[in-house]
Amino acid sequence: AARTGALVAACLAGVAAVAALAMALSSTSAHAQWLSPQAMEGQAMAGFTSASVRAQPTLAHKAVVRMGQYNVGQLGASIPTSSAEAAQYTPGPTLAAPALSVVVSMALVGGAVLEMVRRVWRRTTTRQDDSQWAMMAVSCAEIDAQFPPLKNDNVLRAIRGEPVDRIPVWVMRQAGRYLPEYVEYTKDKEFFSRCQNPEVACHLTLQPFERFDLDAGIIFSDILVIPEALGMEVKMVKGQGPVFVTPLRTKEQWYELEKEWLARVGVSGVATEDQDEEVIKKAPELVEALNYVYQAITLTRTKLDGRAPLFGFCGSPWTLFVYFSEARKTKTYTECSKLIYTEPEFVHRILKVLAHICAQYLIRQVKAGAQLLQVFDSHANVLPPKQWREFSLPYLTLIAQLVKEECPDIPMVLLPKDAPFALEMLTDSPYDMVSIDPTLDLGKSHQLMLAAGKGVQGNMAPTTMYAPPEKVGQLAREYLIEAFGESAPLPRRYIANLGAGMNPDMDPACLGAFVDAIHEFGAK
Ligand code: 1CP
Hey, what's the signal peptide range on this chain (predicted)? Predict the structure, then answer.
């Protein structure tokens, strides 16, 4: 009833404004952006899907107000932004005559009301709009405006190839068990429950910032939250790592899973051979199951208060597939290997579906506030180079393409773990930076990627962290000097990191020494 009432009221207001609108159209083009349906369509939701608006109404409301638009997505009940708010952000009138200004103002209101009516009408008559809104490109600047200004953008500058104030540094698993405060805080919280509680995830993400002068944060979560949220039972078993209760190894199991996923979004009766394409279409809706991650990101970026940018992340399709098929820790990788050699088409089907899900998940993380993204191909080393090119690279590429279609300027980093052969194959990929492992030579890898207009992140051996803290500083200095020379300018397109994550038995003081040594490098 409220929706119908609002619709009727909006219709009346719209009709009343039509005359003024027509006059204004003929007299000025200064505010044409208000009147062109394409421009309205393009800017209005600015990539906030209706679901994201539900998740962060205040932020989204501010976003649409800032753009002088209408918060239709949240509606159902079509509440226009107040004219005072809209006026605050309306481009200043260029017409001097007051009478004309009145006409223009009326036109603005009228045009916008008409647009609103059109949107509400479409929204009440078709659900297709959801996916159209979800498909709209959004720039980082539009999202940045919702958060505290960034005081330390060295990581972003490094990725863009701009000069930096110091070599930026962060490490993988910087929130983790090597920190006594992490152990204390998590002792009564099951692993996935930590990820699912935005306050807890935020708290854990921020813990290392209390100790270290880090240049980036990474949201506390896990690459396995996707399967967990999509109904595949996975347990973090002490001493064993993740265990999937039911290994996924047959076509029948996968088809059943596709069917279940479709049922979640209200789709049934699709022929088995078409299910994958249908799941791909529904991927934006499916990843709403991970709303807690988006909330954690929004909260954490707000609380970080611009100290450093925040990474969102996901696992690669290949890496997820290894976890699904092996189901538990393995040294032999028997099951995933058997499948790629006996059922390659089936594996490709799984990987393609996963790539679309990963991409939509990353897009939602960006819209929630993630300032850059890292994709973890943690099981890249399981595949020989030729098979990596066939079973992992195309899906990593697809993820980056899909993400960048919708978030064109989001920086993306790829970690092909322990797969040094991957570096050359990535010189022409859509990723901006490659995170390299310790087997690669930093100087040479950096040169190779610089020539391709890309950067590297990494790669000091994590085992260096077992040296005494004073020695860690010295080793870090030597490592940088060897790669870049002693008196060279600060390297561009480089982010310092370890080649892999922190282990639980590492001394936090060693990480402190590493971070400080990196920052001191090249300091005048
Ligand atoms: O008790 C605990 O705290 C469990 C340890 C732990 C932690 C701290 C796990 C279990 N996951 C995480 C958090 C996590 N995982 C983060 C955010 C924290 C941060 O980095 O600061 C990130 C980015 C990940 C990503 C992740 N999870 C990867 C990719 C990175 C990598 O190490 O290659 C992988 C492979 C996982 C799977 C995973 N999660 C946890 C375990 C024990 C494992 C298995 C690792 C393996 O198979 O070797």
Answer: 1-17
Q: What is the pTM of this model?
A: 0.78
Give residue 65's Cα distance to chain centre. Answer: 24
In SS3 terms, 449-491 reads as: HHHCCCEEEEEECHHHHHCCHHHHHHHHHHHHHHHHCCCCCCC
98-131 pLDDT, tens per residue? 454 454 455 445 545 554 544 444 434 333 444 4
The ranges assigned to domains in the chain are 148-226+291-520
Task: Identify which of 225, 293, 378 to mutate to test ligand 1's pocket (most ligand atoms within 8 A of the CB).
Answer: 378
Q: Which atom of ligand 1 is nearest to the CA of 501?
A: 32
Are 69 and 43 contacting, i.e. CB atoms less than 8 angstroms apart? Answer: yes
CATH of domain 148-226+291-520: 3.20.20.210
| Ligand 1 site, residue 170, Cβ cutoff 6 A | no
Bridge-based pairing of strands 234-237 and 241-244 is antiparallel
For 169-237, the three-class secondary structure string (H helix, E strand, C coil) is: ECCCCCCCCCCHHHHHHHCCCCHHHHHHCHHHHHHHHHHHHHHCCCCCEECCCCCCHHHHHCCCCEEEE
In this structure, which residue's CA is closest to atom 11 in ligand 1? 222
